[in-house]
Design a protein that fits this description.
Layout (H helix, E strand, L loop, with lengths): L2 H15 L6 H17 L4 H15 L2 H4 L4 H17 L14 E6 L6 H12 L6 E6 L6 H12 L3 E2 L7 H11 L7 E6 L7 H14 L3 E7 L4 H14 L3 E5 L8 H10 L3 E5 L7 E3 L2 H8 L5 H11 L2 H12 L5 H13 L3 H6 L16 H12 L3 H5 L6 H11 L3 H19 L15
Parallel strand pairs: 1-4, 1-5, 2-3, 2-4, 5-6, 6-7
Antiparallel strand pairs: 7-8
Length: about 450
């Protein structure tokens, strides 16, 4: 996400940082480029105008002009303004586990509500909550079945009544069904339309009145850009929701919706969908997103992803092996799988400072390469994995044939493995590896 915008900003600010001294004209030229970049990213034109005016006002101040690093000061101002644009704080969802909580997801058809219901349920289940899904989309063909399939995959109950055409009765049934269970969160998958109409909004308002939900989240497809922002404003005017969940942020979305929606609706982005897996739902942090846009990376999110997937005990065992120079291909493969659990590699690399924007342009992390590495390791005997020095020419030939790769690929992997071991030996502090997956 934001790759194109990040690349444009990188070029603009590189020019500014190259200036020993800034003039009003330098800043004016840079702001013209920033304006163009934001508009091309599909940011609301009124928001762009206000953004540029505010940055320009702060950038021409004496403090910036007389600074030893005026270019960096301007970047700092843009960074802070981006954070203010998206919200100065991330929205915290608070769901006590000692009572029944209710969440409604609303939005147009095709925005990803049903899948997001399952993602949200999976996420909150980690926080001492026992969620159930309620199928209230009785209009879209197979919507109820889709929710039931997702619920079955996750082991989360789904409350539905496929015979009923009354969503209020289905909602009432859900409230009644969970009274004598340990369920303490109901997530309601509501109906959508191809466009907003009076019937849809009345149905949603009636549900809101009946359920008195703790939260109503508007689900928007980030790929639709300003259309998503305009629809969000209409929904909020008629229903007043609490926050926004942006889906498909891993796609070619230009980022306009994420940058505009808070300023237009007054409601923050709460979560973003970053992939197709059930686990691909992230908290939205305005400051971290501003870092990504400006190519500063997002180390905190990277660490959190690592902590979610890395077993601390296994990490400690691995550290001891490294200290004794006993790291093997079996360990290597285990680490590879840990990294894969964290998400697509190109997304992870985008969180590393300096790897956003232009640095990522044209970089395609081919998952097939990882499959080749796995195939090569699986074609080794257990003894060869534990002691790679045994792998001579004939063994390399056998491994290449067994894995469907070439001897050159086998040689390359063996060389990379030895280089990585040498690098890891430099780390003597066990805490350096705790809570984080290792490189491969």
């Amino acid at each position: 996400m934001f790759n194109s915008l990040s690349e444009r900003f990188e070029v603009i600010f590189k020019k500014l940082r190259g200036q020993g001294k800034l003039t009003d004209q330098n800043i004016k030229d840079a702001m013209r480029e920033v304006r163009r970049a934001l508009l091309e990213a599909d940011v609301n034109f009124r928001i762009v105008k206000e953004f540029i005016e505010e940055v320009s006002r702060k950038a021409v101040g004496t403090e910036v002009m007389k600074s030893l690093t005026p270019g960096h000061q301007v970047v700092k101002i843009v960074h802070q303004q981006l954070i203010e644009l998206m919200g100065t704080q991330n929205f915290k969802v608070r769901l006590p586990d000692n009572r029944l909580n209710k969440i409604m997801l609303v939005g147009l058809q095709g925005s990803g509500k049903t899948t997001t219901c399952a993602k949200l349920a999976s996420r909150v289940r980690k926080n001492s909550l026992n969620p159930a899904l309620v199928a209230c989309d009785i209009y879209r063909p197979a919507a109820v079945h889709q929710l039931q399939v997702l619920g079955k995959q996750l082991g989360i109950p789904v409350i539905a009544d496929e015979k009923s055409r009354n969503v209020l009765k289905i909602a009432q049934k859900a409230l009644k069904d969970v009274q004598k269970t340990d369920t303490n969160l109901l997530i309601f998958d509501t109906a959508g339309r191809l466009h907003i109409d009076a019937v849809l909004m009345k149905e949603l308002r009636d549900m809101k009145k009946l359920l008195k939900p703790d939260y109503i989240f508007f689900v928007a497809d980030a790929m639709t850009g300003q259309d998503a922002v305009n629809v969000a404003k209409d929904f909020n005017d008629q229903l007043e929701f609490d926050g926004v969940i942006l889906t498909k942020m891993d796609s070619d979305a230009r980022g306009g919706a994420a940058l505009s929606i808070k300023a237009v609706t007054g409601k923050p982005v709460v979560f973003v969908g970053s992939g197709e897996k059930i686990s691909d739902l992230e908290e939205f942090h305005p400051d971290r997103m501003a870092n990504r846009i400006l190519g500063m990376g997002d180390v905190l999110s990277l660490i959190e992803k690592a902590e979610e997937t890395m077993n601390v005990e296994e990490a400690e065992k691995l550290v001891k092996k490294l200290q004794k120079n006993q790291f093997t291909f079996t360990d290597f493969l285990a680490q590879l799988h840990q990294i894969q659990k964290m998400g697509p590699l190109d997304q992870l690399m985008g969180m590393i400072p300096g790897m956003g924007g232009k640095a990522m342009k044209g970089l395609k992390v081919d998952e097939k390469d990882i499959k080749h590495v796995e195939a090569i390791i699986y074609s080794m005997t257990q003894r060869e994995r534990e002691k790679p020095t045994l792998i001579n020419g004939s063994r390399r030939f056998r491994i290449a044939r067994g894995s469907g790769t070439s001897i050159q690929e086998v040689n390359r992997l063996l060389k990379q493995f030895e280089q990585m071991k040498k690098m890891m030996k430099k780390f003597n502090n066990p805490n350096a590896f705790k809570g984080a997956a290792l490189p491969f």
